[in-house]
Write a structure and sequence with these properties.
Blueprint (H helix, E strand, L loop, with lengths): L3 H21 L1 H10 L10 H17 L5 H34 L6 H20 L7 H21 L13 H36 L1
Length: 205
């Protein structure tokens, strides 16, 4: 999983997905700039930003930094990649299926989004073992993700929902906060398992 050809493949797949994600959010980004304060724009594109964090994290695996400041940035990016990729990977898939369960149509783009977002969550958890993020970085990632949720549902800049869920925003908001907490715990457990494995290797050595 850490061979350079595979890492480069993962890097480009995630980079292309990130660019596509920002294009997907184009209409909402334009609307936010026109009708909301400009500072809120950073909280609009949730999934592509999560994918961007993961892409940057893969770049750090390809080219590990030597300066302390870059090492700190690396750890923060990795923690953000894990928490947000798990959170938005599951969130997008769940929201699509929730909308379908309420009577909405299921088109081919939905299947594509479910596949790509599920992959986001899976790859993030798989790569925790190779990341160097520590507990402080995880706390910062947790605070950022909770802040993003608060901005989304305080100012109405959450991702566009299926039409069948437009009257279920309160329930979606509750689900979103709960999923953030679950994602934080999942990242914490994955890091705990990683650290235990590293400790076991050191004891054997």
């Amino acid at each position: 999983m850490t061979s350079r050809p595979f890492l480069w493949l993962l890097f480009w797949c995630n980079l292309v997905g990130t660019v596509y994600g920002y294009i997907w959010y184009g209409g909402q980004l334009e609307y936010t700039l026109n009708y909301h304060p400009a500072w809120q724009i950073v909280f609009v594109p949730d999934s592509p930003t999560a994918s961007l964090f993961f892409t940057i994290s893969i770049a750090f695996l390809l080219y590990p930094p030597h300066f302390k400041s870059l090492k700190v940035i690396r750890q923060i990016m990795e923690a953000l990649a894990v928490v947000t990729s798990v959170k938005y990977g599951i969130w997008a898939s769940a929201i699509i299926l929730w909308g379908v369960a309420q009577g909405g149509p299921m088109v081919w783009q939905d299947w594509m989004l479910i596949a790509s977002h599920t992959a986001m969550a899976v790859e993030a958890l798989l790569f925790v073992r190779f990341f160097s993020c520590k507990w402080i970085a995880l706390c910062l990632a947790a605070l950022w993700t909770l802040l993003n949720d608060t901005m989304d549902y305080t100012y109405g800049i959450y991702p566009y929902l299926p039409r069948t869920l437009t009257d279920d925003v309160t329930q979606v908001r509750t689900f979103t906060y709960m999923l953030t907490l679950v994602s934080i715990v999942a990242a914490w457990l994955a890091m705990l398992a990683r650290n235990r494995k590293v400790s076991s290797y050191r004891e054997l050595a």
